[in-house]
Design a protein that fits this description.
Length: 130
């Protein structure tokens, strides 16, 4: 049996880049979640407009759209990718907002405490997948 339901039955698309992809994949497998597709963008600059547009079309049943990142809101790729993904969603008449799932704004890109970082990471991944 496959890891996911058919593409038209996927309810949530989770976009990400980098290492968090593996945490998201592990959480999806651990929770046996089959209706969430994880889309890892290998490169965000230049932004892969055509690829993302194609992916949005391949999941016509998706109702939730998430950007997941380890970094705080004011770090990482969110500020660059969110308006671009949102434009593609708007062009396809997807009347939903792209949701940010990551750490709140911070003066530092990381907490500096491994236990706190791990707890925050678990929260980010769980909320993105479940």
């Amino acid at each position: 049996m496959g890891e996911l339901v058919p593409m038209k039955e996927v309810r949530r698309l989770v976009f990400c880049t980098g290492q968090i992809y593996y945490d998201l994949l592990e959480k999806r497998r651990a929770t046996k979640t089959k209706d969430v597709a994880i889309i890892r963008l290998e490169q965000v600059g230049p932004f892969p407009y055509e690829e993302v547009e194609t992916l949005l079309k391949e999941y016509p049943g998706a109702k939730e759209f998430v950007w997941a990142q380890e970094e705080p809101l004011n770090f990482g790729a969110w500020n660059f990718v969110s308006p671009r993904i949102q434009v593609l969603m708007d062009n396809q008449k997807i009347k939903k907002e792209l949701i940010f799932q990551g750490r709140p704004p911070s003066g530092s890109p990381a907490t500096g405490f491994s236990k706190l970082h791990a707890r925050e990471q678990e929260t980010i991944v769980t909320q993105a997948i479940c």
